[in-house]
Automatic annotation (TrEMBL), chain A:
InterPro entries listed in its UniProt record: MeTrfase_RsmB-F_NOP2_cat, MeTrfase_RsmB-F_NOP2_dom, RCMT, SAM-dependent_MTases_sf
Pfam families: Methyltr_RsmB-F (PF01189)
Major localization listed first in the record, in broad terms: mitochondrion
Subcellular location: Mitochondrion
Family in the record: Belongs to the class I-like SAM-binding methyltransferase superfamily. RsmB/NOP family.
Binding residues for S-adenosyl-L-methionine: C132, A133, A134, P135, G136, G137, K138, D155, D188, D206
Name of the protein in question: 5-cytosine rRNA methyltransferase NSUN4
Lineage: Eukaryota, Metazoa, Chordata, Craniata, Vertebrata
Keyword RNA-binding: yes
Domain of life of the organism encoding this protein: Eukaryota
From TrEMBL, chain B:
Full protein name: Transcription termination factor 4, mitochondrial
Family: Belongs to the mTERF family.
Source lineage: Eukaryota, Metazoa, Chordata, Craniata, Vertebrata
PANTHER family: CGI-12 PROTEIN-RELATED, TRANSCRIPTION TERMINATION FACTOR 4, MITOCHONDRIAL
Keyword Transit peptide belongs to the record: yes
GO cellular component: mitochondrion
An annotated Gene Ontology molecular function: RNA binding
Keywords: Transit peptide
UniProt-annotated stretches for the region Disordered: 318-343
Length: 335, 343
């Protein structure tokens, strides 16, 4: 990998983190009973990083609005509670347990995966599309917000979609699944522009990528091996097509978050720029990238961010906080 | 005379000397040089006259320390009176060998029940192996049980150590690090030497060098020693010559693994390929293992102390878990995790 060029002096610390055990966050299941889950997790010396970011942020010195949370903070999707251990703490969460309602009490995931969902900024009554939903952590998070009027969850792979179904089954009560009109499909995400153009308020495009963390570990069937070079080269093109489809499926004025778990420019910024260009050139649709600087600052105590992204934000793994990689970029469809 | 001696001194558990013992040679044949030095020193000591004074035996503070001690010294005194020549003989021999008054007194009180001749024999063996008085004193202080060793065993072990190349003054460090060098079982020493020679394929010269520089290996579990070598040779790609030169075997496996794996995962160390080449030059071993942790982090790893601390914890856990789990169990666990987690 040529990441040493891209990241320079940061690369060794990223590399050692990618090769070491990753850190997890515990997404609290709001549908399972009781606040005892939060209390239990706090007992373990974990804390809810979302809560800390949004409500305990020190006000900026220049900004005199100390009373109300700053505008960016309520742009975060609401009702998400996710516990992590503090920097340098390598404790593990015990496996989730089934509560009295027969649902699991929390979902273990890479805490950085929650950021794209937070950034998407769901509001009550939104129609939501999760274009590449499996295995389902982000989908679950979208439902936790309680904001989804409709949630369409899609993944091309049927085996992965069935995993998604299992997650929903274990975490979300039937009535909520019905109420939210959760629809799970296994169609080709690239077709969404035609299928459901201009439909959604919020769209999440969490594309298939080289999952760098796993690629570094596995020798076999590694996407970086020579025999899969073509596949690797085709990936950015697929990603552009998926993002474009997601943008086309968004209502004008709606928002899209594009995310990957790759460190590569080619799968991140280039794809965003490529999709925006494509929409402009082929469809005359204007898409604008939203600045996430303020959002990033909210979470700087929990995650390490790469300082030099052209567009979007990138969580980089560090031994002190071994989350990520997670790239995300928020866009607004203007026309 | 013997019977009388036994009657009187029975409760001191001291076997009486016989005149025959007095005349027994205390040095091996061929140590002519030593004898000469001995005689020379004897001459010099006599002229200074210091060591032969009685007062050194009744030094009050030393006497007062323990009853045992007092018993020993009293015993010596009585013994001295009874067979004055033998005790004096030991003392003067020791002084001639270069031991200070203070040391002589201490040596005599280390194992008060020891037959003076026995003590002299043991000490002589050590001196013959090229040890100076100070290290001998230190070794005996550390391991008083040495004085109880049958002289035959002492001689046998000495000759074995000489064969291994640990005579001629190379013994000091080994004895310091491995006080039971003489008292440990022959087969335990053998096992280590065999691991080095037959399993690790070090040359005889290299084995000597290792025992001289890293005497701790003698106290290691043979299996672990072999593993340490394999780690160096196969995992890190270090050749025999360098393993010896850099004292690799003296560092604990934990420390070595921590620093090496850290470097490897940082991308700063690569196992050489079949041709012995790496894409980037590996840091020198001394910059990995010999330096302090602070220097290692600053210069070699170029990383922070806090990251290294976390890494050590993670590595320890990995080691624990790879030992504990069977391969299938591990696979199952991973699949289970994947079910639950978002990647």
């Amino acid at each position: 990998m040529t990441y040493s060029v891209q990241f320079g002096d940061l690369w060794p610390s990223i590399r050692v983190s990618l090769l070491s055990e990753q850190k997890y966050g515990a997404l609290v299941n709001n549908f399972a009973s009781g606040d005892h889950v939060s209390a239990e997790l706090e007992q373990l010396k974990a804390r809810d990083f979302v809560n800390e970011a949004i409500f305990h942020r020190e006000p900026e010195p220049e900004n005199s609005q100390t009373a109300a949370p700053s505008p960016a903070s309520w742009a975060c999707s609401p009702n998400l509670r996710c516990f992590t251990f503090t920097r340098g703490d390598v404790s593990r969460f015990p496996p989730a347990r089934r509560g009295s309602l027969g649902l699991m009490d929390y979902y273990l995931m890479d805490a950085a995966s929650l950021l794209p969902v937070l950034a998407l900024g769901l509001q009550p009554g939104d129609t939501v599309l999760d274009l590449c939903a499996a295995p389902g952590g982000k989908t679950l998070a979208l439902l936790q917000t309680g904001c989804c009027r409709n949630l369409a969850a899609n993944d091309l792979s049927t085996s992965r979609t069935s995993r998604l179904q299992r997650v929903l089954h274990n975490y979300v009560p039937q009535d909520v699944r019905d109420k939210n009109r959760v629809r799970v499909t296994s169609w080709d995400g690239r077709k969404w522009g035609e299928l459901e153009g201009d439909t959604y308020d919020r769209v999440l495009v969490d594309v298939p990528c080289t999952t760098d963390r796993h690629s570094l570990h596995e020798e076999e069937n590694n996407i970086f091996q020579r025999s899969r070079k073509k596949e690797r080269q085709m990936l950015p093109m697929l990603q552009v097509q998926l993002l474009a489809a997601g943008l086309l499926a968004t209502k004008p004025g709606g928002h899209v978050v594009y995310s990957t778990c790759s460190l590569s420019h080619l799968q991140n910024e280039y794809v965003v720029q490529g999709a925006i260009e494509l929409l402009d050139n082929q469809y005359s649709i204007k898409v604008q990238v939203e600045d996430l600087t303020h959002f990033r600052k909210l979470f700087m105590n929990t995650f390490y961010f790469f300082p030099s992204c052209q567009v979007g934000e990138l969580v980089i793994p560090n031994l002190m906080a071994n989350f990520g990689p997670m790239y995300f970029c928020k866009m607004c469809r203007m026309t | 005379m013997s019977a009388l001696g036994r009657q009187v001194f029975d409760w001191h558990r001291l076997s009486p000397l016989t005149w025959a013992l007095l005349t027994r040679p205390t040095r091996q044949l061929g140590e002519q040089k030593r004898t000469t030095a001995f005689l020379l020193r004897k001459l010099m000591t006599v002229s200074s006259g210091g060591g032969l004074e009685e007062s050194s035996f009744v030094d009050p503070p030393k006497c007062a320390r323990k009853a045992e001690h007092r018993t020993g010294l009293t015993q010596c005194l009585l013994e001295k009176q009874r067979t004055p020549v033998s005790q004096e003989n030991v003392v003067s021999s020791l002084l001639d060998m270069g031991f200070s008054d203070v040391h002589v007194n201490e040596l005599l009180s280390i194992q008060p029940g020891t037959h003076p001749q026995q003590m002299l024999d043991i000490i002589s063996e050590l001196v013959l192996l090229g040890l100076n008085p100070e290290p001998v004193y230190v070794a005996l202080k550390k391991s008083p049980q040495l004085l109880k060793l049958p002289v035959m065993q002492m001689k046998k072990r000495s000759s074995y150590l000489r064969k291994l190349g640990l005579g001629e003054g190379k013994l000091k460090r080994a004895l310091y690090c491995c006080p039971d060098l003489f008292t440990m079982r022959q087969r335990d020493v053998d096992v280590i030497v065999r691991v080095l020679k037959e399993k690790c394929l070090f040359t005889v010269k290299q084995v000597t060098e290792i025992l001289h520089r890293c005497p701790h290996v003698l106290r290691e579990d043979p299996g672990e020693l072999e593993y340490k070598f394999q780690y160096a040779y196969f995992r890190m790609g270090i050749k025999h010559v360098d393993i010896v030169k850099t004292d690799f075997l003296q560092y604990s496996m934990t420390k070595t693994k921590q620093r090496h794996v850290f470097l490897e995962r940082l991308g700063r160390y690569q196992t050489p390929d079949k041709k012995g080449q790496t894409q980037v030059p590996n840091p020198l071993l001394k910059d990995i293992l010999r330096v302090s942790e602070a220097e290692f982090l600053a210069r070699t790893a170029v990383s922070s102390a806090e990251e290294f601390e976390v890494f050590k914890k993670l590595l320890a856990r990995e080691e624990e878990e790879s030992e504990g789990c069977m391969a299938d169990e591990e696979e199952e666990e991973e699949e289970g995790r994947e079910e639950e987690q978002e990647l």
